[in-house]
Amino acid sequence: MSDLKKLLETYEDTSSDRVQIIRELEFVEDEGKWPFLINIMINESADDLERIEVLRIIEVTEPPQIYVNRVISNIYNIIIKEGDCNLRNYAVIALKNFKDEKLLNLAKDILLNEDEDLDMRWNAFDALKNLKCGNLFNEIVEKLRNDKEFGKAIGCRLIIK
After folding, report:
1. Distances from the Cα of 3 to the Cαs of 35, 38, 112, in angstroms?
2. In CATH, what is the architecture of 3-160?
3. Are 52 and 86 in contact (CB under 8 A)?
4. CA 8 vs CA 15, 49, 157: distances in Å
5. What span, in angstroms and rounded, lies between the C-alpha atoms of 109 and 7?
6. Which of 15, 75, 106, 127 is most exposed, with minimal Cβ within 10 Å?
7. Which H or E run contains 77?
8. Domain chopping of the chain, boundaries
């Protein structure tokens, strides 16, 4: 029996540590894990910690090309529709691997929205910086220089990272 199959069967056991199983799936070299992980990510009845763990995996492990559009769409939907701030924050962190226009515009909107959660705004800043968006990023930085939360800190953040 393959490692993937064993982990998926163990996950179905409700007494299992599902977050730990998801962590172990990160290191399984089998593309078959991605439909399973994507389903957890979009399953609103799944435990938020499980969904966050999937987003953390997406942050550090780019999915195979065949799944990228589904992942992008689901990250977008989580950021737009999800009520849980932690889940939304992890989705913003995960978007740093996807140079998708829809996600870039969403990150820009989050970053420029002074009413948005501050951690979410900094995560959007880091994602945009990581994606090396050139002129878009420079335009945003200029707008943020007058922002009460970002104005002074942004220069330091650009130098340090």
Report:
1. 16, 18, 44
2. Alpha Horseshoe (1.25)
3. yes
4. 13, 17, 41
5. 39
6. 15
7. helix 65-81
8. 3-160
